[in-house]
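input
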Amino acid sequence: MTNLLDHIQPGPILDVHDLPRSASRQEWFAITRRIIQATIADMDLDPDSLSQVEEAFISAGLL
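output
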């Protein structure tokens, strides 16, 4: 599997999301999932690597 960090473009990832000052645990999980989904979508991965990345995050409960 390729190194995930090789495919992430530099930049302030949290600046693109409207983060609340206070949120429930469920809301923070939803925010985290959206950030992960956006990051994976921005990666330029071949289909095999993409499925491995998605499988890793799904098995960790993050997608």
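quick obs: The first helix runs from residue 25 to 42.
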